[in-house]
Write a structure and sequence with these properties.
Layout (H helix, E strand, L loop, with lengths): L7 E14 L8 H8 L8 E14 L10 H16 L2 E2 H4 L10 H15 L5 E7 L5 E4 L8
Parallel strand pairs: 1-3
Antiparallel strand pairs: 1-2, 2-4, 4-5
Helix pairs in contact: 2-4
Length: 147
């Protein structure tokens, strides 16, 4: 019998959290913020029920048959997403967003960075953040686009 070659798979898990925020850049005037962000610049903020899908990628372990134990992934997501973000005012309760505009793009980066600290090296493939059913950001860890 010949040995089977390693097989790669992607494993995804989702969570939903609720949070509020205000889109507002300290680099812009109040008028510029209102023009850029519109109703999302409401001084009292607004909220979302965010859905986050985390995808990991790796070899399927020949003994366990898994890329990763889902229970472990659930615990990592609890620590990296739910604990810091659920039922929070992103701008006031999460130190990261005191200097970074709390756009969905930046929420995805925040989640990516938190997961990178917890997951086995090189396994995180994609973070997908659904702000609404129509607005989705996918982040795969890229830092810049080469032009």
């Amino acid at each position: 019998m010949s040995p089977r070659s390693a097989r790669l798979a992607r494993l995804s898990r989702s969570v939903t959290f609720s949070a509020c925020h205000r889109l507002h850049s300290k680099s812009l005037s109040d008028e510029e913020n209102l023009k850029l962000f519109g109703k999302c610049n409401n001084p009292n903020g607004h909220g979302h029920n965010y859905k986050v899908i985390v995808t990991v990628r790796g070899e399927i372990d020949p003994v366990s048959g898994m890329v990763m134990n889902l229970t472990d992934l659930k615990e990592y997501m609890q620590a990296a997403i739910m604990e810091p973000l659920d039922h929070k005012n992103l701008d006031k309760d999460v130190p990261y967003f005191s200097e970074v505009v709390s756009t969905t793009e930046n929420v995805a980066i925040f989640i990516w960075d938190n997961l990178q600290k917890l997951l086995p090296r090189g396994i995180l493939y994609k973070v997908e953040v659904h702000e609404t059913e129509q607005n989705v950001v996918v982040y795969k860890g890229e830092e810049t686009i080469v032009k």
